[in-house]
Amino acid sequence: MQVISKVEQPISPKNDLMENISNHLERGQESAHQIRSFINERLGLKAEDRDALDRHSLMTLNSFQTVLSMLKASGFDQDENFMINNNKRKVDVLECLDQCKSEEISGGSCLSKEKRGCYKRRKSGQSWTTEVTNLTDDGHAWRKYGQKGILNTDYPRNYYRCTHKHDQGCQATKHVQQISENPIKYKLIYQGEHTCKNLHKTPSIILDESPEENSSFYLSFQTNNFPLAKRALNPSLFPTSAFNATTSSSMIKQEYTPIKVDSPPPVYNQYSSSSDNCPPSSSDITSIGLPSTPVSEQGDVISSAEIYSSTPSPYERDDDLFSLLLPSDHQYASLDDFWETL
DNA sequence: TTAATTTGACCGGC
DNA sequence: GCCGGTCAAATTAA
């Protein structure tokens, strides 16, 4: 049987990437301008101004960090190791669904209860394996659909599919598995291209002062889970089990666990489990303080680190992209440099 | 009520 | 038969 694409003109990963990069750059630059305005025009900062400065600083960092992570993930970072992912056991969901559709057309019931779990393994295809130590937003909304203990591994593997699998036929999937605890490290396996057009836009930085720790604040990028965030503000209201493998209705949300920030903060983005594509409103913004280590056994924490690819990266390094990240009148050697300058 | 997660069952590849 | 990946009913949360 011939396998056909689910969309007539699938959006390539490169297009997705460039769109995300563009969005993040715009946000970052906008925030940078705000910061500069504050610095230049309000030397005697009031508390509210300082808060605004902090907020914009974090937004800038978030945007830059996200873009850098994307560039790494796409192969721009030459310092990262690239390797071929020799995964031989793939699931060809497309093929299965095609078969199912054909069977449905012909009166079959591939997805009926009698044939639960119908699919075919993908013999080959795109996959990207990434090892990460914390979280970044890849710009897509994911839904967890499974968890499995893997042989010779200490932690279960978690399976995520694109939220738009059913409404748009997006076949992208992601596997997340914790591979070490100290330092905490996760292995991500992305499979399939995102064909959904409803990209989850860059989440807003959620900033607020913790009642317990006024000297620091917390970030969250939830888009529509205010109650959860508020609950998380008080650890006593947030059961420990919520971070275990078997709990929490919001594991996919925890996948992008907000973190406490004291100094140059790693910036985390939190996927929204919602299917809408709206940027979070101000009412969505809150702060949440979660355990410093996102302890989900599922390893639902994602970020950038070493990036590997099973296929030759379609992207070539473009130093102009990096230059776009930086103010025109100053070149920062790193995000740390950027932060220190702030 | 709706949506997301959990988890045992099921499937195909090896 | 084992193993990893997926499905979908049941459960949980918003």
From TrEMBL:
The molecular function terms of the Gene Ontology recorded here are: DNA-binding transcription factor activity; transcription cis-regulatory region binding
Q: What are the record's GO terms for cellular component? A: nucleus
Composition bias, kind Polar residues: at what positions?
285-296
User: Which Pfam families has this protein been placed in?
Assistant: WRKY
User: Which BP terms in the Gene Ontology apply to this protein?
Assistant: regulation of DNA-templated transcription
* Keyword vocabulary terms for this entry: DNA-binding, Nucleus, Transcription, Transcription regulation
Domain WRKY, by residue range, is 131-194
Where in the cell is the protein located?
Nucleus
Q: Where is the composition biased (Low complexity)?
A: 272-284
Q: Where is this region: Disordered?
A: 268-297
**Main location class:** nucleus
Protein name per UniProt: Probable WRKY transcription factor 70
Q: Which organism is it from?
A: Spinacia oleracea
